[in-house]
């Protein structure tokens, strides 16, 4: 979970992820974070880890999040985004986890692609699962600037290699949010969830950014390649 900038002294954080490279980078940045390799799709291993840790809060951020990948391989997307979310919900209920937070996306609002639909389903499942004993809520983010797999570090690397920046369309826009803003929404969700009897989705107004403007701030060498699937 590479966007968490919580007060490290407030929580004991365990990061459960199958991405070994990101896990190692997280550990180097935050030595007190305990990293555990595993996938939300692997229910047996996930249950084993929850049994050992006995967490007070689960933050479910695992997903296949690239729109074109979801369009090309919908079965893989379903495994992670829907079945993985179902595993989290069922195990949170089984072990009476007090708070479970689902990380969703702006693309779940009036979804136009499979990734957006999968996150909409995740949200609906979380809200259905909410009870007084086991609280569930969701947050919605746009694109987290500088996060793993996002376009800004991709373009900065292209610039470093003296290669052209590839833009799908000069008319494309994105909703952008900083890592600190994203973390604040998660913390707010944890704080608010105990105050409300109904499940909810927490979001905030985000800046709409023209991707061509971001690209021009990095390099003048820009190539338009066409819109990807989804």
Brief overview, please?
The protein has eight helices and eleven strands. The protein is α/β, with parallel strands linked by helices.
Your description of this structure?
The protein contains 8 helices and 11 strands. By secondary structure, it is of the alpha/beta class. Strands 3-4-5-9 form a 4-stranded parallel sheet, sandwiched between helices. A 3-stranded mixed sheet has the order 6-8-10. Strands 1-2 form a two-stranded parallel ribbon. β4 (99-105), α5 and β5 form a beta-alpha-beta unit. It is globular, with a radius of gyration of 18 Å. It starts with 13 loop residues before the first strand and ends in a 6-residue tail after the last strand.
For the residues shown, what is the average pLDDT?
Answer: 91
SSE series: EHEHEHHEHEEHEEHEEHE
Backbone structural class? alpha/beta
User: What is the count of helical runs?
Assistant: 8
List the main descriptive attributes of the protein structure presented here.
230 residues; four-stranded parallel beta sheet
How are the secondary structure elements laid out?
Layout: E1 14-17, H1 20-29, E2 34-37, H2 43-53, E3 57-60, H3 67-72, H4 74-94, E4 99-105, H5 114-129, E5 135-141, E6 143-144, H6 151-160, E7 165-167, E8 173-177, H7 179-193, E9 201-202, E10 207-210, H8 211-218, E11 222-224
Parallel strand pairs: 1-2, 3-4, 4-5, 5-9, 6-8, 7-11
Antiparallel strand pairs: 8-10
Helix pairs in contact: 2-4, 4-5
């Amino acid at each position: 979970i590479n966007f968490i900038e919580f007060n490290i002294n407030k929580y004991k954080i365990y990061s459960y992820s199958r991405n070994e490279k990101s896990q190692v980078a997280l550990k180097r940045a935050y030595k007190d974070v305990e990293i555990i390799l595993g996938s939300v799709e692997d229910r047996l291993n996930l249950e084993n880890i929850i049994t050992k840790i006995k967490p007070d809060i689960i933050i479910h951020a695992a997903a296949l999040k690239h729109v074109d990948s979801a369009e090309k391989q919908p079965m893989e997307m379903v495994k992670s985004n829907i079945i993985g979310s179902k595993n989290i919900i069922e195990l949170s209920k089984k072990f009476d986890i007090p708070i479970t937070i689902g990380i969703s996306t702006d693309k779940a609002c009036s979804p136009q692609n499979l990734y957006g639909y999968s996150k909409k389903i995740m949200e609906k499942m979380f809200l259905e699962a909410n009870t007084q004993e086991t609280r569930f809520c969701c947050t919605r983010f746009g694109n987290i600037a500088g996060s793993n797999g996002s376009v800004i570090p991709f373009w900065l690397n292209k610039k470093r290699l003296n290669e052209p920046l590839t833009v799908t369309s000069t008319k494309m826009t994105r909703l952008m949010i900083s890592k600190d803003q994203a973390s604040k929404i998660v913390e707010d969700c944890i704080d608010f969830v105990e105050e409300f009897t109904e499940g909810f989705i927490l979001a905030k107004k985000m800046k709409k950014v023209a991707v061509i403007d971001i690209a021009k701030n990095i390099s003048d060498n820009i190539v338009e390649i066409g819109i990807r699937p989804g």
